[in-house]
Amino acid sequence: MRVLIIKTSALGDIIHALPVIDYLRQVSTGVEIDWVVEEPFLPVLEHNPGLSQIHVVRTRKWRKAPFSAETRKDLRALRMELRERCYDLVFDIQGNLKSGLIAWLTGARERVGFTREVAQEKANCLFTTRRIPFRDSDRNVTDRYLRVVSALFGRDYRGMELTGAIVSAPEDEAAAERYRAGLPGGPVILFQVGTTWNTKLWYPEGWSELARRVVARYPGATILINWGSPGEKALGERIAGEVGPAVHLLPWLRIRELIPVLRRVDLVIGGDTGPVYLAAAVGTPTVSFYRATSAATYAPQGKRHRTVQAAMECAACYRTSCDRDGECRRSITVDALFGAVTDLIGQYPNGKDAPC
């Protein structure tokens, strides 16, 4: 059997979908699994031994010039590439118009996706031949992806041990190992201070106070700041200036370079954002906080992870801007996050050796 997974973006969503590979390999002997992904997120998948082929798409570029000769050429090539694989099943777990079109381009008779009520864009349902409803128990986004994929195999994913492995190139692993060897011997904790929505961010003073408490509680600890924009870099520099030499800014890292670094730190702290989910996928404990989004839906699962939901009656509002933004940020207290840090480090001082 040859199966195609369409999950093109974004970083965190692709990571949440990785267990579908393990599910398919467990329920279907000899299955070949292909995946469609946006070019920036290829490093999450490109070394995965469970995948037979990866189709890379560049839909952002295509949207900018939909009628250009280059776009038409790319789409013709994608259609040919997909149809040559002769898929028995296509699972569209993206749920928007572009993913629906990609599913249609495959020419597959069985194209499975979301119901109209939950699809990101209702037009997606024009391109699927079967639409799978969620159950009330499918609260976490990974559960929802697995519900769609498992519906045709007659075996519920619940009770199965499923992982979402991410494999790096040897040269990237070696570079991260050299970087880690140059740090002090105490615990290494990474702060992921940035994300895409303002309503997912924490407040700067909170990051600095949390860093002070970590350094005071764990002498010899190193705090690394990951950043991806000038604003995030400036925040990292502010934290380092206010806390002292225990805080280090990472160099700007591409996804493929960041993955093995996350594998080598002892704990990652951040909001609802891709690097936190990358950390969880490679086995690193996490403390994550949620404001406009829901911890129940997106938070990493398992004993090595702690979550804090904003203490607001309107939390998980999914708004990208809000007049009460400052109040919401401060409803996530330093005490709550620091308590989660000490709880994890106390239980699992060697985070990578902790049970899942």
Automatic annotation (TrEMBL):
Residue ranges of coiled coil: none
Enzyme class per UniProt: transferase
EC number: 2.4.99.23
GO MF assignments: ADP-heptose-lipopolysaccharide heptosyltransferase activity
Protein's pathway: Bacterial outer membrane biogenesis; LPS core biosynthesis
Any one GO CC term of the record: plasma membrane
Chief place of localization: membrane
Record's protein name: Lipopolysaccharide heptosyltransferase 1
Organism field: Oryzomonas rubra
